[in-house]
Amino acid sequence: MTWLNDVVQGLLLGGLYALFATGLSLMFGVMRLVNLAHGDLSIVAAFIALAIVDAVPVNPLWTVLVVVPLMFGVGYLLQRGLLNFTLRGADPLPPVLVTFGLSIILQNLLLESFSADSQGLDAGRIEDASIRLSDRLAIGWFPLLTLLVAIGVLVGLQLVISRTRLGRAFRATSDDPQAARLMGIDNRHLFAVATGIALATVAVAGLFLGIRTTFTPSVGPTRLIFAFEAVIIGGLGSLWGTLLGGLVLGVAQTLGAQLSPGWGVLAGHLVFLAVLAFRPAGLLGKPVPAQ
Amino acid sequence: MSGPGVRTSATAPAGPALRVQRATIASRVGLVGGLLAVAVLAAGPLWALDSALRTLIGFFTLLALAQMWNLLAGYAGLVSIGQQAYVGLGAYGLLYLADTRGLNLFLSVLVAGLVGALVAVPTAVLAFRLRGGYFAIGTWVIAEVYRLIISNVSQLGGGSGLTLRAASQFDRTARLFATYELALAVGVGAVVLTYVLLRRRLGLALTAIRDAETSAQSLGVHVYRTKFLVYLVAAFGCSVTGAVIYLNLLRIQPEAAFSVNWTAFMIFIVVIGGVGTIEGPIIGTIVFFVLQETLSRYGAWYLVLLGAVAVLVTLLARRGLWGLVADRTGWSLFPVQRRLEER
Amino acid sequence: MLLEVERVASFYGGFQALFEVSVQVAEGETVAIIGANGAGKSTLLKTVVGLMARTTGTVVFDGRPLGGVPTHRRLGMGIVMVPEGRRIFPSLTVEENLQVGAHQARAGPWNVGRVLELLPALADKRRRPGTRLSGGEQQMLAIGRALMGNPRLLLLDEVSLGLAPIVVRRIYEAMPEIISSGATVVLVEQDVGQALRAADRVYCLLEGRVALQGRSAGLTRQQLSDAYFGMRA
């Protein structure tokens, strides 16, 4: 029965990973941009929540009302003011170099502002409450909430993409940016909206991470790596794949940690490498023709 | 840049009055100056203080790492954030070969490089399935895999690491001098290796790939094989350098040996100095050392500044400091392009 | 004049594709641009919609100079192009392709219903992915998508390329209604006969320059073929 409990806990953890991965997947889908500062921006969101909770005594869950719109704005401005300039031309270097530089900048700014100490967000009783299904199987309310929010965000985003004018523009631009401009679509604005949405989702992820566990200014890259693994395991270009990828990664890490405490993260990496080796298009991705 | 590149030669009128030329005046002056500088540096133990030798070991090894990253990203378009894998593998290869296997300490440095190149084969097979930014993170993940595996091997000290014991058979001064000469060799070797590779057919293939990957493919350039080869060379270079670095530091610990900071420094150096030029990493390493000496006491702010400079250079001066110099003067110390000249 | 192109030069990197080209189009007119491959016909249209990075000279639309106006704004002013090769969005259904055409459109007579009335072949395929259509249907979709932008100036780039004559005829049968909806049409055509039948006036480009212009009815075969192939007496 413990393995069943591990799988359930892994699925719940995977919800958080899917939430981290959503924004990465969206940005790549719309503009083929991989933001290496993705993880650090989620940690920025967690520190903003921390600063709010320090100033005003509220449950950190309420800070979502401020942090999410704020990070949307940060994303919009970041894309228009900086990242759009890395997308001119076919050179693969500028996007990687600029977002990697941004990652280093953010980590060290956080270090200067908040020190290297571990921080945490205290959401009160919900963190300990759980539903006991049997002696060995219990589902924590908070991990369950995380998973449900992740699914909610993914379903919402999928609806926006498939049903709305904005979603049509996202898909059209992803297919053929130049033809989209001929349809009157302003790519610079559209990319900025996509990054805004991506950072809004990653802000939620950072907030839930901060409540679930402690964090420091330097944990962003690990979040980026887990988000990336979820995207690749699930398959590029599929939001449902991203959800599945997050869940698979969560289960792999939880089961790996049961084998030996040092092997949790490594087990996740190995599943990622196995997918890359045997199913490079991902579990739900469309197979790409060999190069 | 030193005159027209390869492509123009096809359209230029071919005739007996023209010959393909690569050397420039700057490059001849550079060659003589460079040989003199290497000779003076090689005699370093005769004139330099031990502390200066230690600084120069850091300089040469960083130069070697940066040059390897430049070869990857600047010439083959492979933007890796996982080169720390090879620094770590070189360090642990040295530790294993010299301490556990009892191989000669200095021979171990070379063999550690080969170990790194060997591990690079499966790494490249997997990582090459990813492109652009995803390739960057993929190489990073694979470096993490090697770190985690080694952290779980108790014979290699596990997570807390080990000290290189084989080094204690030499006395301090002899070891310092030997490490210094090795560091100089990897620094100069990396520059020469890059230069030689780029002057050969590989250089032409890489230029073709950089200009237009698809058309290079249709012209019969084996894009995959060329990139694969460059990746292996860079893995070898970084592993040998990693071994030399830890021959100097002695204390090997997985968190430090496999730290992404190694690659971050390579990136800063190459971007600031000039990506896709051989001179760039040399200039970049000098600038990096000056900045580190003057600003490192500002701690995190120093890294914020480095990050900001890298971002600005990438967007505003794509070919870095050396690019600015070359555009104004036309200098090229390492001419890897062929020029047509009238006889 | 609705469109005045005044001494325009355009470049692809270091390669100059247009030299001092001047073209005038009056409101309500249909003008054809003809010429051999590489004469600069498509480049001229791309210059008018603002897709060429480097151009000199002026393009004036309805009295407003277009210098510095980005491509996506020109659609809102009523300049809409059907690009060469159709460029249908594969991730979008036929209906969504049409809707995307109205993304930033000005008000006007066209909507999905009216476009499907004009191009009935698309009506029962509206839920299909846009690229799962025959070549002719894809071309109709590209034209329909452009109409959704309620064009005052409709630029058609090589609409008959690669299509069977009967399909081409069906596409050109839709032209009178497009014109009567208020659109001024500039079309680039490989097929000179087709161009002469459809257009009031013709410009013939040769190696990036205007070699001949005139009313379709007033040009002789000899004049046309001289201008087309670059033979000068």
Overview features:
heterotrimer, A: 291 residues, mainly alpha, globular, C: six-stranded mixed β-sheet
Task: Characterise this structure.
Helices cover 70% and strands 2% of the residues of chain A. Chain A is mainly α and 291 residues long. A two-stranded antiparallel sheet of chain A has the order 1-2. In chain A, a hairpin with a 5-residue loop joins strand 1 and strand 2 (138-140). Chain A starts with a helix and ends in a 13-residue tail after the last helix. With 343 residues, chain B is mostly helical. Helix content of chain B is 72%, strand content 3%. Chain B has helices at 8-11, 25-42, 44-47, 50-76, 84-100, 105-127, 132-151, 172-199, 201-211, 213-218, 223-249, 254-257, 261-273, 279-295, 300-316, 320-329; strands spanning 18-21, 162-163, 251-252, 339-342. In chain B, the strands form two sheets. Chain B has a two-stranded antiparallel sheet with strand order 1-4. A two-stranded antiparallel sheet of chain B has the order 2-3. By secondary structure, chain C is of the alpha/beta class. Chain C has nine helices and ten strands. Chain C has a six-stranded mixed beta sheet with strand order 6-7-8-3-9-10, sandwiched between helices. In chain C, strands 2-1-4-5 form a four-stranded antiparallel beta sheet, with helices on one face. In chain C, a hairpin with a 2-residue loop joins strand 1 (3-12) and strand 2. In chain C, helix 3 packs parallel to helix 5. The longest helix of chain C has 13 residues, at 135-147. Chain C is globular, with a radius of gyration of 17 Å. Chain A binds chain C through residues 165, 168-169, 171-172, 174-176, 178-187, and chain C through 49, 51, 70-73, 75-76, 80-81, 83, 87, 89-92, 96, 99-101, 103-105, 145, 149.
Q: What share of residues of chain A is helical? A: over 70%
- Major beta-sheet overview of chain A: 2 strands, antiparallel
Strand order of the largest sheet of chain B: 1-4
Structural class of chain B: mainly alpha
The overall pLDDT of chain B, averaged over residues, is 86
Judged by helices, strands and strand pairing, the structural class of chain A is mainly alpha
Biggest interface goes to: A-B, 47 and 43 residues
> How many E strands of chain A?
2
Reading the helices and strands of chain A in chain order gives HHHHEEHHHHHHH
Helix percentage range of chain B: over 70%
Biggest sheet strand order of chain A reads 1-2
Segments of chain A where pLDDT lies below 50 for 5+ residues?
A: none
End-to-end separation of chain B in angstroms reads 21 Å
Indicate the radius of gyration of chain A in whole angstroms.
19 Å
Q: Report the strand count of chain B.
A: 4
Shape of chain B: globular
- Number of distinct helices of chain A: 11
Beta-strand level of the residues of chain A, as a percent range? under 5%
SSE order of chain B in H/E notation?
HEHHHHHHEHHHHEHHHHHE
Shape of chain A: globular
